[in-house]
Design goal:
Chains A, B: Pfam families: TetR_N. Chains A, B: This is Transcriptional regulator. 2 copies of one chain form a homodimer. Chain A is mainly α and about 220 residues long. Chain A is built from 12 helices and no strands. The model of chain A has no long low-confidence stretch (mean pLDDT about 90). The first copy, chain A, binds a DNA duplex (30 and 30 nucleotides) through helix 5.
DNA sequence: AGGAATAGTGAGTGATTACTCACTCTTGTA
DNA sequence: TACAAGAGTGAGTAATCACTCACTATTCCT
């Protein structure tokens, strides 16, 4: 039944796989240059002339492939939003709920590890998305829709599953989700964006973060 | 001894109190209009002509008080950065460490409550600061300096104090700080910026957030 | 090989930009 | 009251902006 309403999501993600479909070499260079300039200066302060210059292309070439500058932005930031939530749509994620012996910590560790890697590989794209989402209504709507659809249909189910199992406290799922997202985003923002040179053992850092999320920072006697 | 090196910080905050010093009525209107336009469109997409129009002022008047558009931005965003960290410099905060009977949860609740209120009252200003910090090196440097100075001299001391007391786990203070900031920022961003219409009992929400930070989301049996 | 579609070009365009400047108006002081 | 200093003005300016278009180069199908 989920496959009916979420078909568009699956389609969306499938389209992301072959997004290198039929692109000219120059068009690829335009996208690469746009990512550079957008992430460095922000969308509004980025000029099409600089993008063209960095791509080694005439300015008119940009507008052959993209109607407007905003079009170029959306063609870049849109897919990032989808990829950001992609792992929560994978089959493995749904199947996971059928494995009652799977421990929450393994589950959380896997997600954090995966999204940390994703953030590292896509720093500039994420920066562009986060920066422009408040000013581009289309982007905001897309992100909100992706997030709510995924959360209510998948993640919330997973939370309730683990709660029934006794692995998670019986608190409202949205609070569990918010705490987890806060902790994970905080960790990723710190290590990837704020202090990328801060030395750390990735596996241990993941484990400690999940441990704090699960058991808190209070002392033992409590 | 802290009073020597941190004199500049104290001075900075004192200057914020009487920042309404000798300002013309039109100058105040310019600042108000600038806050509006900057937060709506972003600094780069905001035009001085629109700011002047909204302030009911000639465009030249802006440049009588501010050398450049960037000057106007910095005069707005700079003080916000300082006010953001201000409560961690208050005398009460330092004195708190001399009260061994004070419980961590009361401490955390007070901070969260205070910063939540601050965020509500200064939504637009915070939005401007967060949005422009990555693109204005002066702002970034100021925020980093404020944060590190405050953290190492005050908050870290507080964490170690509570650890010695047995109220907090013996984990590296920076990890305690990161977890706390993550959880608090996540809570504030959700309630103030993402879902301001989401109905909630503020006091209970504060209590539940602090409880999750202290004791985690794991089920009792563990 | 031929011809149509698509990719690429770059000079040109009107609109908008941040900022200037010569000027007037207001305010405080002696 | 006289006068200096600052506040306020708005037309003006050079630069830059996103975007267009008439044209050429390349690719692709038959």
């Amino acid at each position: 039944m989920t496959d009916e309403k979420e078909q568009w999501l699956v389609d969306l993600l499938r389209r992301l796989e072959d997004d290198d479909g039929k692109k000219t070499e120059k068009q690829i260079r335009i996208i690469e240059a746009a990512v550079e300039v957008f992430s460095e200066k922000g969308f509004a302060a980025a000029s099409t002339s600089e993008i063209a210059q960095r791509a080694g292309v005439a300015e008119g070439t940009i507008f052959r492939h993209y109607k407007t500058k905003k079009d170029l932005l959306l063609s870049i930031a849109g897919p990032v939003a989808a990829k950001l939530f992609a792992p929560f749509l994978m089959r493995d994620f749904a199947r996971l709920l059928e494995l009652p012996y799977d421990r929450v910590e393994d589950f959380l560790r896997a997600i954090l590890r995966d999204r940390l890697e994703f953030a590292r590989k896509n720093m500039k794209l994420i920066k562009i998305l986060v920066h422009e989402v408040p000013f581009q209504p289309e982007l905001l709507a897309q992100v909100k829709e992706l997030f709510t659809h995924i959360v209510v249909t998948r993640v919330e189910k997973a939370v309730k599953h683990f709660q029934a199992q006794g692995a998670l406290k019986e608190i409202p799922p949205w609070r569990v989700i918010r705490s987890t997202v806060s902790q994970f985003v905080g960790m990723i923002v710190f290590h990837v964006f704020l202090a990328p040179d801060f030395p750390f053992d990735e596996e241990e850092e993941i484990e400690r973060t999940v441990d704090i999320l699960l058991h808190g920072i209070a002392g033992r006697p409590s």
